Amino acid sequence: MSLERFMKVFSNLPINVRKEIIVVIDDQPITWNVAYNEIKHNTELGKQILKKLIELDVI
Amino acid sequence: MVTEDEIKKLVIARLMTMPEHLKVSIGGYGMFDKYALISHVEKNDEIGKKIIEMDMHYLKSFKKGDK
Amino acid sequence: MNDEKMFITRPNYDDTTSYLFHWSENIIEFAENKNINFIDFKGERVNKKDVEKLIVKQNPKLIVFNGHGSDDAIYGHNDETLIKTGENEKILKSKIVYSVTCNSAKKLGPETVKSGIRTFIGYENPFVFLVDKNKTCTPLLDKVAEPFFDSSNQLVISLLKSRTTGEAYNKSQSTFNKWIEFFQRSDAPQDSLFILRWLIWDRDCQKLLGDENSLF
């Protein structure tokens, strides 16, 4: 469900917007592109990112 | 639950990427370069809150499918 | 030829009003080319006494306020209050007003509608724009600022072209969208991501209140 929400937003993002920082996890800035890679591969970081993006109401 | 501090860190991280030659005019508040914007966000004063509001508005606009 | 008058205020006492002042010249040039009657108050002339007197005596149908503002007021030179809720918004009765100021669509706008303004178009939040600090002495050459003022100016230009207030508002919104799409492209110029975020803000804060079918 969360993955679906992320992909719905990400797939519609203009290419140059994907370079933007969208969340900071453990003081590390994460861009849309980095988020996509982590989420796609279902990493622990990806799960953290998804959770934060939902809390931020960005996806 | 996302904290105020997390949102501030996010907005500041985003502002850090702003080019040096740009300034933002925010109505009667004045014109600010990236360092002034960051300072206001850190202080979380009236201007800082408005900067955060504007940036979050932008980030959420993609969820709505706005372009 | 339209006998109606446009009244435009252009204070110029800080960086922000300097940009508003200079970018409004595009509107004035358009009005001149179309032989439209207009009155242009600049600098110190944008004070409450002179502005009120002009509005009452000359009865302009369209008023463009440039400058600073708040939820319930529009300011002139050195932040002098020109129009304020509960004081003198009634002088705007039957007019079309475009307020390129911060926040005035929040409270002042709705109050002017209650007082009989034809249409009020303004911003519910700060009108924000980006500048290139190397170009602040020559605002009209500032390509970073251009999208914001082009989008705003199209509203007035549409009214001067005899479009309705609704059509003019839509034209301004679509001009915002045109620039937004431009800056979202993969080949967009540098700075595009920063221009984008505040263009979206301004577009979304711009509001039309009152009659959508008014004509200048």
Topology (SSEs and partners):
The complex is a heterotrimer of chains A (59), B (67) and C (216).
Chain A: H1 2-11, E1 21-25, E2 28-31, H2 32-40, H3 44-55
Antiparallel strand pairs in A: 1-2
Helix pairs in contact in A: 1-2, 2-3
Chain B: H1 4-16, E1 22-26, E2 31-32, H2 34-43, H3 46-61
Antiparallel strand pairs in B: 1-2
Chain C: E1 5-10, H1 15-23, H2 25-33, E2 37-42, H3 48-58, E3 62-66, E4 69-70, E5 73-75, E6 81-84, E7 96-100, H4 108-114, E8 119-123, E9 128-132, H5 146-160, H6 165-184, H7 192-205, E10 206-210
Parallel strand pairs in C: 1-2, 1-3, 3-7, 7-8
Antiparallel strand pairs in C: 4-5, 5-6, 8-10
Helix pairs in contact in C: 2-5, 5-6, 6-7
Descriptive account of the structure:
- The complex is a heterotrimer of chains A (about 60), B (about 70) and C (about 220).
- With about 60 residues, chain A is α+β, with helices and mostly antiparallel strands.
- In chain A, about 55% of the residues lie in helices and about 15% in strands.
- Chain A contains three helices and two strands; from the N terminus they run αββαα.
- Chain A has a two-stranded antiparallel ribbon.
- The model of chain A has no long low-confidence stretch (mean pLDDT about 95).
- In chain B, strands 1-2 form a two-stranded antiparallel ribbon.
- In chain B, a hairpin with a 4-residue loop joins β1 and β2.
- In chain B, α1 packs antiparallel against α2 and α2 crosses α3.
- The longest helix of chain B has 16 residues.
- Chain B is globular, with a radius of gyration of 12 Å.
- The N and C termini of chain B lie far apart (about 30 Å).
- With about 220 residues, chain C is α/β, with parallel strands linked by helices.
- Helix content of chain C is about 40%, strand content about 20%.
- Chain C contains seven helices and ten strands.
- Chain C has a six-stranded mixed sheet with strand order 2-1-3-7-8-10, with helices on both faces.
- In chain C, β4 and β5 form a beta hairpin.
- In chain C, α2 packs parallel to α5.
- The longest helix of chain C is centred in the C-terminal third of the chain and has 20 residues.
- Chain C starts with a strand and ends in a 6-residue tail after the last strand.
- At the B-C interface, β1 and α3 of B face α1, β4, β9, α6 and α7 of C.
- β1 of chain B pairs antiparallel with β9 of chain C.
